[in-house]
Amino acid sequence: MPKLKGWRRSQAATRRRAQREFLIVGPQSHSDDVPTGTVGTGYRHRVNQWPKSVLTGRQHKLVIPPEVPDKKFVLIVGDSHLRPFVDGVVPLPEGRMSFGFMSTPGACADGLRTEVVHAAVPRNPDLVIVMAPSNNLTTQGSLEKSSTDFAKLLSTAVGRWFKVIVYDFPPRLNHPLDHQELLRQEFRRVAARMGIRYVCPAADDFPLRRLKLWCRDSVHLSDDGGSPILGQRLWQAAYTELERGDPASVLSVQRRRSPPLSTVTPKVVVRGEVPAPQPSNPFEWTVCGKVHKNLSGNEVEDSAPCTQQLSTVGLRDCFVRLNPIHFSPHLLDAMEKISPSQLPNPVPQDDEMPRVEPRRTVVA
């Protein structure tokens, strides 16, 4: 029997509905996201060869500015992102601050810690800025390993210098953005747990659509685009942190600890009877403070403390006759006539209570 036209329409509608239900929608990309592997278009100077460190086997350079009494000394510790500043290609604004650099290109958190331990810094800096190492993105270790190494780096820096902050690493174009965000959040949690300020650049400082901010390796910032912005943000972070207060006072507040609680219960031992204080005699003078009184015609000089009592003063004969009679006999006789004292009650009272008749309501 041939199928009807309505049956075929019903089957077609069922298939279309099934296709809509099983449609898989992929992740939507952010407007600022760029495909992995995008190449930057900015310019970067030719890399100068630095002497290699015997500790890490990588190129390492420490630059200390001359001491100026009116300027604060700020030391920045980081990886190859500091090359333009160390080589003097990109000038860093100074003002009331002079900047020194400790750069180890290609070093991760563990390598930076090794260089910090053995660094020969001639004087203590007023502020140390540790740039979060972005080279941990390419290491073989896990995220937990990077977190542990970064915590050791911060512990070493805080143990050697008294004021340390962390500045976030610039984003990369050749690495997945979600992985970079995970590492950035882990570094931020480590710094927050240790009580260290973690400074992040603004969202519009390094927009991923502006390829001129990166050089052709898509890792480092360009000399004519990204590095000047990074230098301004580092100067701003240092200026803001130094304006927070005196480093000595901040150190004393951070290292102040509450005294340990006492676990020993004190015991009270009472030996013998404790004599109770004698109550003061109301018929004796008690002088409090410096007063002047005339007692028996004699002037009392400035008294001693409040607890000192004066000697007992004898009473004179009063001019009022002391006797229990308060009324004259004539007045008592008149009162006896009005209210005899032999009666049981001064005023006779009726035993019965007065009756009050209820008010009648007249119905019209």
From TrEMBL:
Which InterPro entries does the record associate with it?
SGNH_hydro_sf (IPR036514)
Q: What is this protein called?
A: Uncharacterized protein LOC121893587 isoform X4
Cross-referenced Gene3D superfamilies: SGNH hydrolase
Look up and give the organism this protein is from. Xyrichtys novacula
Q: Which SUPFAM superfamilies match?
A: SGNH hydrolase
Residue span of region Disordered: 339-364
Superkingdom assignment: Eukaryota
Q: Which residues fall in a compositionally biased region of kind Basic and acidic residues? A: 352-364
